[in-house]
Amino acid sequence: MDILSLFIIVPIITILVLVFTKNLKQARVVSMLGSVVQLVMAINLVFAYFNERVVNDNIMVFTKDVVWFEHFNIHYNIGVDGISVALLLLTAIVVLAGIFISWKMYDLPKEFFMSLIVLSVGVYGFFISIDLFTMFVFFEIAVIPMYLLIGIWGSGPKEYSAMKLTLMLMGASAILLVGILGIYFNSNADGGALTFNILEIAQVNIPYEAQKLFFPLTFIGFAVIGALFPFHTWSPDGHASAPTAVSMLHAGVLMKLGGYGVFRVAMYLLPLGAIDWSWVFIILSVIGVVYGAFSAIRQTDLKYINAYSSVSHLGLVLFALLMLNKTAWNGAILQSLSHGFMTALFFALIGMIYERTHTRDISKLGGLLKVIPFISVIYVIAGLASLGLPGFSGFVAEMNIFVGAFQQKDTFMRVATIFSISVIVITAVYILRVVGIMLMGPVKNEAFLKLKKVTWYERFGILLLLIPIVGIGVAPLWLSDMILESLDPFIKGLL
Question: What's the domain count of the chain?
């Protein structure tokens, strides 16, 4: 059995075992064990990747190719580089943390955990796919469970939020499919056979007119799930209505498919289209960065604050990718990882606060530092990481983005960079505002004096997310080096 297929097989086995569980205790133990195995596999893959790189200088390692549908040259073709390995590790950590945060899920627990793990199957498959069609299939597998997870286990206007999310992402998928088929039918431009293989297509000189036509379709198709302005509106509503673990996976993992797809497919396979269209999407991404931050200031619901913060932070990812240089791209990948851990941590903490106080309105909260100090201190740490304080993952990512962006001598790009950098100040405003209102001062509600203490499984889930945030901030070089060496093929495509 190859090392990558296990990322598909182990979750599927976990789902099959969950079918036969009879109560909450059995369901959560099975889900936890399955997720622990996945995390162990992800950690093992990191070490295996470094060892393999010593003797293997191919673009992708641990590759496997099995014919799926020969007539259209569709293959189950998988492999990883440093970027994929890092995102697989992110996924494994967030999934396990989500299981612990959902430890007391009493409403259809078996079905809930099964849906979460189906989502993770799609994400794992997406990150390891080299075949475009297979990647698209896993993309849909990751998106579809969100409707059920929000529509069944959500709160508030959950049916509306679930339907809005599904319709917008399915619409983006339709646009994406057109882009992928456009790439496929131009993959024989040099006289070879039509193929969905990303590595093979990258060697083909796709005509400029085709690149110019299909790049925006492919970019938008992926970027919608990455909260590209003005197609971001599904995200805040989806976050607000989703249960805690679903918000964690939604923002921490699922939204990363957007930036990864843009990078792996749109920019790698259609580099001339990327150069031609970059100015349009730079404008949209900068608007998203600024708009998301200002919108977060105006919110009073903790989930909406974090949701709009995600729009801003993920706008930085798209902005960095469009800078078309190695330093900015390294920052984009680091930002994807940093945001994944930070936003999952935020949503976990928000869920814990809501479970105890039964409100997410910061105007009704106050003095929580006195009654739930563990949650409050971790919230402050997550906030400091979000605003880019040195020593945390956010600083490492944003420094790479801004330094890489300023390497562009074009005045337009430098002005766009200045606007993006200015958002650091806005981020500090809404983070410190929430900390001041919610955590400091006197306790506003006497009932809050009796809030229950943090449980062992909540602590474990929180620490799983906190350790990488601090670890990347303190010792980022191993991760940065792993990413940088994987960027060379992308840079060559732009030369």
Answer: 1
Residue 292 · residue 317 · CB < 8 Å? no
pTM score above 0.85? yes
Token pair, residue 421, equals 């950098």
Assign residue 452 a region (left: φ > 0; alpha: ψ between -120 and 50; beta: otherwise): beta
Query: What burial class does residue 47 get, using C-beta atoms within 10 Å of its C-beta: 0-12 exposed, 13-18 middle, 19+ buried?
Result: exposed
pLDDT tens, position by position, 253-308: 888 898 899 988 998 888 889 888 988 999 999 999 999 889 888 888 888 888 88
Q: Which residues pair with 80 in a beta bridge?
A: 61
CA 246 to CA 242: how far, in whole Å? Answer: 6
Residue 133: domain span = 6-494
Both tokens assigned to 442: 């006197």
The answer to whether position 100 is within a domain reads yes
SS3 at position 66: strand
Dihedral sign, CA of 74, 80, 81, 83?
A: positive
CB atoms within 10 A of CB 478: 12
C-alpha–C-alpha distance, residues 450 and 408, integer Å: 55
Structure tokens at 358: 């039964």
**Which residue type is seen at 112?**
F
* Residue 473 counted as domain residue: yes
Per-residue pLDDT tens for 188-197? 877 777 888 8
Peptide bond into 157 cis (omega under 30): no
Q: Is residue 1 part of a domain?
A: no
Dihedral sign for Cα atoms in the order 24, 27, 30, 34: negative
Give which of 153, 107, 138 is closest to 260, Cα–Cα.
Answer: 138
- Is the distance from CB of 128 to CB of 78 less than 8 angstroms? yes
d(CA 204, CA 199): 9
The C-alpha atoms of residue 495 and residue 482 are separated, in whole angstroms, by 22
